[in-house]
Specification:
heterodimer; A: alpha+beta; Immunoglobulin-like; 2 domains; five-stranded mixed beta sheet; 10 strands; 46% helix; disordered C terminus; B: Cytochrome C Oxidase, Chain A; two-stranded antiparallel ribbon; 19 helices; 2 strands; disordered N terminus
Chain lengths: 340, 601
Amino acid sequence: MALGFIITFQIAKASEYVAVMRGIEKSRKQTNKVNAFLLLVFLIAGMIGVYYCNERLKGKILGAPASDHGVHIDTMLYITISITGIVFVITQVILFWFSFKYQESDKRKAYYYPHNNKLELIWTVIPAIALTVLVGFGIFYWFKITGEAPKDAMVVEITGSQFKWEFRYPGKDKILGKKYYKQIDDAANNPLGQLWDDPANHDDIYVSGEPMHLVINKPVKLVIGAKDVIHDVGLPHFRMKMDAVPGTPTTMWFTPTKTTKQMREETNNPAFMFEISCDQMCGRGHYTMRGEIIVETQEEYDAWILGKKPKYYAAFPDKDPSAPKADTSKAAAVQPVAMK
Amino acid sequence: MSEAIHIHPREVGHEVHHGDGHGHHHQSFITKYIFSTDHKMIAKQFLITGMIWAIVGGLFSVLFRLQLGYPGQTFPILETVFGSKAEGGLIKPEFYYSLVTMHGTILVFFVLTAGLSGTFANLLIPLQVGARDMASPFLNMLSYWFFWLAGIVMLSSLFIQTGPASGGWTMYPPLSALRQAGDGSKLGADLWLVSMALFIVSSLMGGLNYIATILNMRTKGMSMTRLPLTIWALFFTAVLGVLSFPVLLSGAILLLFDRNLGTSFYLSDIVVNGQILPNEGGSAILYQHLFWFLGHPEVYIILLPAMGMVSEILSVNSRKPIFGYMAMLGSLFAIAILAFLVWAHHMFVTGLNPFLGSVFVLLTLLIAVPSAIKVFNWLTTLWRGNIRFTPGALFSIGFVSLFISGGLTGIFLGNSTIDIHLHDTIFVVAHFHIVMGVASMFGMFAGIYHWFPKMYGRYLNSTLAYIHFWVTIIGAYLIFWPMHYQGLAGIPRRYLEKSMWLSFNQFADLDKMITIVSIIVFAVQLMFVFNFFYSIFKGRKVTTTNPWGANTLEWTTPVNPGHGNWEGEIPEVHRWAYDYGKDGREFIPQTEPIGANESKH
């Protein structure tokens, strides 16, 4: 590399001497032509490059969205790509074409053209109209996506901490019990700080170290929190994202429209999984903070949740009705879920 | 020379001061080169300090690109240089995040704020408005030395045991507030905050000085609407800085309190590493509001000087007036106002009230209108010109190209609906590097190539300059264009390895390519630095006072202006700065009176 430097530098120095000898003005004009030509080459090569890049990479971005909101977001994305794409091509072509066409020439004098109010008005109004369209569509979808979750939405709580995700399902009462961070105690089987006084907590199901399970075509409202620093629940396939802020719970909702199985078939990838990525810098393990989601049918989900026991029973084994007489209690726990 | 500063130049500039000692009074090395109060010397100090920081910041990006392009590969030299932080030649996560954080902090604040505004506001404001120096040369000197001090504090954090801050250049709490959350949140974070506080002091002293000089010290005839657009851009930059930096200062001080005095401004309900903290009632989001209330104007603090210089350089080199001076000025003004009203578009997914979000969508996309006006006006300036592709002109054309590309992707991110998917992905990295990082860097290069003859009385080697331009613009697009696709795939920022992710591991070849190109681009920047220092001493000498045939006042000073700039009286101004190609004349300097038969514009 050092050698390359020295050679380049020597050439550059030599070319400067040559220029001085041949007359600065003459060699400057020659260089001007070269640069003007290169600008044109850059435009053409650049446009081919943009096309080539798209051909190479378009297959590697996510594919069809797997949620209803994702469809809206992709629509909005394509509207924006079309409008900005047209503007991009027009303005870049003009920029480099003008540069090439109006390169210095002894034959031409620059045209004194300080302003033209009509032109300026036109290119104030046209972008304004284009942007109004984009803002209109954007806000329309934005309110659809961020509006209240449907009443029948299932609720799942997701909590981030360095560097893992924990989930909580509200159980048969469909209410997440109250919690208080000072009650968090892993040793006492209370990793989320649930307040056991609150009866709503008694049936809440805690899930960690395995995928979150969701039901296809059933809206889900995620209640999002964090224990230590800010994290972010990123769901690239569903095109959803929301920060997890300690002390300030947030929510987001969406409806999964494809099961994991369907995705595996569509992508021809038997190992496919919906992933939860942490999208907010959260410390040294940020890039490893991975979670998984399985989207399945109602029956599959019911079967899965059936195997889960509320954390309450782990904290208070004596309250666990299944411990002495397992059969009856299990049936009782299943019923409400199955009824839905 | 001090008299020149105390006496109002508009009244007196023409009568007294026949060189009563300008340039001839004796100066020691220390007062001339170190504690100088000459705005031109201070500009050079800012520039060279900025360049050193740019090398450091750029080198950091090469290092973390190595990790991204070749994850898991060992580079034994890294262990030699960085010791335990790169044990076995592997870049450890904590080290990676330190590199990323420092790269961002250094480039945004030390290079593109201090290095860019500091250099060109200092150099150009007195020279182009027709003043002998800044309103307060002493404050100006202090501004540089506070910047220097900020740099020293930041630099020292690189050498401490636990390493520099590593929470990202935005330093969001609680991560940056809790020592338990990571090594970078220990002493490094305190040093980062102290350094930033010093930097803000520097920036305020500079900014107030720029505003005062522009408003009060214009020479006779230099009305505000005769100012070159560089000065207008630097003026709005200074106003933005003065109004927004104090907010960051408050944010940083509160964070220091939370870290060291047990307050709970940003902290609430936290269990970190199994330890339950007592803090309740704070809001982590408050910091983000305070940060981005500076952080967004900061983007324009970086961009506006580049826009101003590009307007000037494009006009000079296409030998045509800048098209739509008043529209350019109006759009600068509109951008400056809107810059304050869009900060929450960085926070669409923090749980912000959706209605508030929609207001910020509207205001954000509104910025595209003045930006579009600027682009169209630059294009029309080129139209039917007689363009000389000096290195400065090429970098200006490159700036416009990058500003278009990066500006358009801003329309994606500013629309909250799309931002849900793209927020905090590589798409954002691609967007702001193109529009703010590389574009402003291009503006800075354009400025350096254009005004180097004024700074040092010599030219930079133009062959090296052309190589510099072509490699940099091709490299910039090769690096950042494909990153948009990684972002569309949803890959989050600040992931140093993606192999464990099923959805994000499909770009290994691309990452390698980007790394190789960034090494080449970095090498070419070193070549530029070499050209810079070599040309200071050995460059081709400037033989005429006005080498570019430009209208503005700086080219009426001697080739190597002394302290006080003009040897005789400060010239009077009779016209705007853009009479190029008027009435068949190639250019008409601002100092030339309006002729009797001259056409009006």
